[in-house]
Amino acid sequence: MNHPQTTTNQVLRKVRYEIRGELAQRAHELELQGYEIVQLNIGNPGLFGYRTPETMRLAMIENLGSSEAY
Questions:
Q1: Under a CB-based contact definition with an 8 Å cutoff, are residues 63 and 55 in contact?
Q2: Where are the domains of the chain?
Q3: Residue 21: phi, psi to the nearest 5?
Q4: How far apart are CA 27 and CA 37, in angstroms?
Q5: Which value, to the nearest 10 degrees, does the dihedral of the CA atoms of residues 9, 15, 18, 22 take?
Q6: What's the farthest any 2 CA atoms get from each other in the chain?
Q7: 3-state DSSP assignment of residue 34
Q8: pLDDT tens digits for 7-63?
Q9: Contact at 8 Å (CB) between 50 and 40?
Q10: Which residues contact 37 (CB under 8 A, 6 or more apart)?
């Protein structure tokens, strides 16, 4: 099956997803200095007691119908 070629929007060229990037390195440096760092970048914030803000939860419910991919 042939798929059409896609191009990346220029705005997105600077977007990166790094599990171990500059932010993780800085967090490690702070840990070495004695700071306690709660790393939530690849985990579930709910397990740490963080809750979704009510305004965000309501917005997701309100827009659920228009966000279905199929």
A1: no
A2: 17-67
A3: -120, -155
A4: 7
A5: 150
A6: 54
A7: coil
A8: 878 888 887 777 778 888 999 999 999 999 987 777 788 888 888 999 999 999 999
A9: yes
A10: 27, 30, 31
End-to-end CA gap in the chain: 20
* 31 Cβ neighbours under 8 A, 6+ residues apart: 37
pTM passes above 0.90: no
Q: In whole angstroms, what is the distance from residue 4 CA to residue 1 CA? A: 10
Q: Tokens for 49, please give them.
A: 């007691």
For residue 39 the two structure tokens come to 């790393």
- What type of residue sits at position 14? K
The answer to whether 42 and 19 have CB atoms below 8 angstroms apart is yes
For the chain, the C-alpha Rg in angstroms (whole number) is 19
- Paired tokens of 32: 């070495």
